[in-house]
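Predict the 3D structure for this chain.
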Amino acid sequence: MTEYTEKRKIRPEERLAAFFRQKGEITRREKLSIVWQMSVPAIMAQITSILMQYIDQAMVGNLGAQASASIGVVSTSTWLLSGLCSGVATGFSVQAAHQIGAGREANARKILKHGLAAALCFSLILMAVGIAISGKLPVWLGAGEELWTDASGYFFVYACSLPAVQINRLAGSMLQCSGNMRTPSILNASMCLLDIVFNMIFIRHYGVLGAAIGTALAQAVVCIFMLRAVCFRSPVFRFRGEKGGMDKKIFTTAFQVGAPLAFEHVAVCGAMIVTTRIIAPLGTVAIAANSFAVTAESLCYMPGYGIAEAATALVGQSLGAGREKIAKSFSNLSVLLGGGIMAVTGSLMFFICPGIFHMMTPDIQVRQLAAEVLRIQLFAEPLYGVSIVAAGALRGAGDSLVPSILNLISIWGVRITLALLLVEKWGLHGVWTAMCIELCVRGLLLLFRQQTSKVGYRETSGKGKS
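Done. Predicted structure below.
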C-alpha cells in the first residue's frame, strides 16, 4: 500500500497533490473515491444555489400566479447574465488549476489577481447594461402589461447585484480549482439561509421586488466572506505581498478559454429567452407553470454541475502535472458518475414533483400543468448529465470552443425548431417535448467530443505518465 492510500483522513485535494508529488500508482477505485469526495461539496453548493430559486418561487408564489410569472418571464435573462459571469470565472480558474497541478502556486496567485481585476471591470459593465434595459425587457419578451412593473423591478435589482455575483463565481471557482470544495459549499449554504431571512423581511413589504432585494443582499454578504477565504485564508491563493505587473498572456488565455463558454451561455440562454417568447402567448398559467417546472428540474441537474466542477479541477490539475492518462481516467469516471446520478435524481423527481409544486404555489392549474410538462423532460436527465459533466471535463483540458459550438447547434437547431413546430399543436407540452429531444441529442454530441478530443493532451496519447 502506498503512502497515498494510507492518508485517508486528509482532504481529497491534499491526497491528489500528494499523489502527484510521489508519482505513485493509483487504482480505479481510488480515482472514483477522489472524484466522489470532491464532487459532494460541489453538488451541495449547486443544490443550495438552486434552493435560493426555490425559496424565491415559493415565497413569491403565495402572492399568486401573476407574481410568479413576473419572475419567470425574466428568469432566463438573469441566467444569461449569470452565465457570462461564469465564463469570466472559468477563463481564469482553469489556468490556475493547470499551474497548481504543475506546482507553480505563485503563478496561480498571479492569475487570481488578474482575474479579480477583470471580473470587477466586466461585472460593472454588465451591471450598467442590465440597469439600462430593465425597463423595456418584459416588453421585449412579450409579457402582458400586468407583469411589466414587477418583472422590470426584479431584473433591475438583480442587475445591481452582478458585481457580487461575479466575484462569488470567480472566488468560488478559484477555491474549487485548488481542490477546496468545502468552503464554497459552506458559504453557498449560508447564502441560502440568508436569502430566507432577507426574503421574509422584504417580500412582506415589497412583494416581488422584495425577493430580488433579499437575494441581492445574500449575495453581497457572502461575497465578502468568499473574498476573505480566497485572498487571505487559502493556502494556495492567500496574498503574500508578491509584486508583479499585468501579464497580457493571462488575459489572452482567459479570453480563449472563457469566451467560448460565455458564448455558449449566450446561445443557450438566448434560446431560452426565445422559448419564453414562444410560451408567453399561451397565457399567465403557462408562463408560471413553465417557470416552476424549470426551477424544479434544476434540482435534478445541479448534481451534474457539481460533478462537472470537480471534473474541471481534476482534469486541469492532472494535465498541469503532466499526467495525461490519469486526466482522461478522471474525465471518464466523472461522466459516468454524472449520468448515473442524474438518472437517479430524474427518477425521484418524476414521483415527488407534484408535492414540490404543491409547496411552491397554491394555484391548482399551475401545479398540474407544471407536473405534466416536467415529467416529459425527466426522461432526458441521464444524457443531460453526460453533457454537463463532459463539458466540465473538456473545460479542464482547455477545450471549450467545440463543445460550445455543439451546444449552439443542438439548442438552436433542434430545440427551437421543434418548439416552433410543436407549440401550436400541443402548447406547453410541445415545448417541453422539444426540450427533451434536444437534451438527448446534446448528450450524445458532448459524449462523442469528450471521448475523441485531444485538446490539452499531448498527441502521443497513451504514452503519457499514468
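The chain is about 85% helix and 0% strand.
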